[in-house]
Amino acid sequence: MKALEFTGIIPPVLSSFESSGKVYEKGIREIIKFTLPHVNGYYPIGTYGCGPLMSIEERKKSLEIILDEVNGKVPVVAHVGTADTVTTVELARHAKEAGAQGVGAICPYYSPHLPEDYLFSHLAALIDAVNEEEFPVYVYNNPHLSQNTITPSLLKRLAEYGLRGLKDSSFDLVNFYFFQEAVKEYSDFNVIIGTEAIFAGAFDAGATGCVCGMANIYPELLAEIYEAHKDGNKEEVQRLQRLILEVRQITKLGPTVPIMHAILRARGVDAGYSRSPYKDISETLLQKVLGELKALKLF
């Protein structure tokens, strides 16, 4: 897969665990079956996928299950970011061997505010390990969680070195324009947005894809806004964007990941549970969440 083939609606697919915390294979497969008819790709084992909460072997196993269930129907770009370079490279090599179509990595977390040269060296090692034209490497810009920031100037350096994509979760549309400008001479570079919250603005700004957590629970809603965008129906895009923001507020009535697992179970998907330190949500919170979704005619 070339980088620019990773487009459209891309869930950062939820991982699934038994109540004991063990990886729940059936739950992972059920989430894929539920979302696959509506989406254009997957970005697993990241924030929503609880990658940092799993051991290296659990991350590998979960990715293998996802790849088996997807079975080549849409591209899978595996998140391989960790706190260190050696483990990130190990996961990237595994993802390539397992059959993923590319990899992405957040900047090292737990090492905040690293100098730009450190970030460049870390990501260059990842590029050196696996990058090919048909196996692109993405960087995942999430300064809130990593406490490290990809700047437009660093992005340009990385593009010159071989990076082929950016997933931007900074929620900053101004910076998104600067990212586009920084890589404009690289016709095969793909810039995608990492949230459904600013779908309309980001796609107007040139985004080709959206890695959107909400696509785990309402993939049909995200598919609808993407189709409206492709059809040039700006009024419908704006209507759906407002609805999406209302749903986001509901998923933030508590910790988002366990709320999403609970919504999926309520929708009839055997999605399993989140892993500690997350806890399953209370019955009181569940009823509040479902009540607000019913008010939007989404349940």
From TrEMBL:
InterPro entries: Aldolase_TIM, DapA-like, Schiff_base-form_aldolases_AS
GO biological process: N-acetylneuraminate catabolic process
Cross-referenced SMART domains: DHDPS (SM01130)
Highest taxon of source: Bacteria
CDD domains noted in UniProt: DHDPS-like
Keywords, alphabetical: Lyase, Schiff base
Keyword flag Lyase: yes
Active site positions, chain numbering: 140, 167
A molecular function (GO) term: N-acetylneuraminate lyase activity
Residue numbers binding pyruvate: 211
A Gene Ontology term for the protein's cellular component: cytosol
One Pfam match: DHDPS
Signal peptide: none
PANTHER family with a match to the protein in the record: N-ACETYLNEURAMINATE LYASE
Similarity annotation: Belongs to the DapA family.
Name recorded for this polypeptide: Dihydrodipicolinate synthase family protein
Organism: Mesotoga infera
Source species taxonomy: Bacteria, Thermotogati, Thermotogota, Thermotogae, Kosmotogales
